[in-house]
Amino acid sequence: MSYSLMKKQIIIPDIGCVSIVKTRINRRISIRVTPRHVRVTIPYRINFDEGEKFLFKNIDWVINKFNELRYKFNFYDSQIIPSLIGKVQIFFQQQPNNSFNYERTIEGYKCHFGINLKSPDYQKYVYNKLMFLFKKEALPYLQQRTYELAQKHNLIYSRVRLSSAISRWGSCSYKNSISLNYRLIFLPQEMCDYVILHELAHTVHKNHSKAYWEFLESIVSDCKKYRQQLKQFRLSDLP
């Protein structure tokens, strides 16, 4: 268990670390469950104990929802996952102890798993190893694509970092450091480019003012169309 003035973390069996966070925005207690974490948000003036009581009052729902989301990505032998880094092919071989290795191919990657298919946790093992691969390979891809688009439109940024956020595709700091969600590699190319250009445009205009949108439309044809299409993709629906 750990504390700070704005955040408290507790360990819950079957879930792991749960954060209870104070915010000046929220007016009521709420719980957010994702495949990766559980977060309880409480109003600033409410005691952490109230947030903890609210969590345990709803703990059965939280655990069921967490497990439902965590295991929504069911991987199987000979599966092919399309992505912007190439086709990721999955191969399973039954064995007592878990093992993992992958190889690059002309089309993408071949991922070889030695796993105990009777184990209730084998999907979790596969998920964690694939996330390692996706994040490792997404960074150089997104760095290169950002460089290409910045060069094309004469835009200057400081660096590109990888994000695993469950609430946003990307961000741009006041020092022009760009963060991009690794899940962009699961979007169509034009949608990935739109997000990158959206963040690059913030190197010129730091807010979403009228001037910002006019500038973005000047470098992205069909900007409004892509903006609407992006809403069809939910981060929580992607690995």
Model description:
A hairpin with a 4-residue loop joins strand 4 (30-33) and strand 5. 22% of the residues are buried. The chain has six helices and twelve strands. The strands form three sheets. The protein has a five-stranded mixed sheet. Strands 6-7-9-8 form a four-stranded mixed sheet, with helices on one face. The chain has 239 residues and is α/β, with parallel strands linked by helices.
Question: What is the topological layout?
Answer:
Elements: E1 2-3, E2 7-12, E3 16-23, E4 30-33, E5 38-43, H1 48-57, H2 59-70, E6 80-81, E7 87-94, E8 99-104, E9 108-115, H3 122-153, E10 159-163, E11 170-172, E12 177-181, H4 189-200, H5 210-219, H6 223-230
Parallel strand pairs: 3-5, 7-9, 10-12
Antiparallel strand pairs: 1-2, 2-3, 4-5, 6-7, 8-9, 11-12
CATH topology assignment of the largest domain: Zincin-like
Please trace the helix and strand order, writing H or E for each element. EEEEEHHEEEEHEEEHHH
- General shape: flat
Q: What's the helix count?
A: 6
Helix content: 25-40%
Structural class: alpha/beta
How far is the N terminus from the C terminus?
A: 29 Å
* Strand order within the widest beta sheet: 1-2-3-5-4
The rounded Rg comes to 21 Å
**Major sheet description:** 5 strands, mixed
CATH architectural group of the largest domain: 2-Layer Sandwich
Number of domains: 3
pLDDT under 50 segments (min length 5)?
none
Q: Mean of residue pLDDT?
A: 89
Strand composition percent: 25-35%
**What is the total tally of β strands?**
12
Name of the CATH first level of the largest domain: Alpha Beta
The H-level CATH homologous superfamily of the largest domain, spelled out, is Metalloproteases ("zincins"), catalytic domain
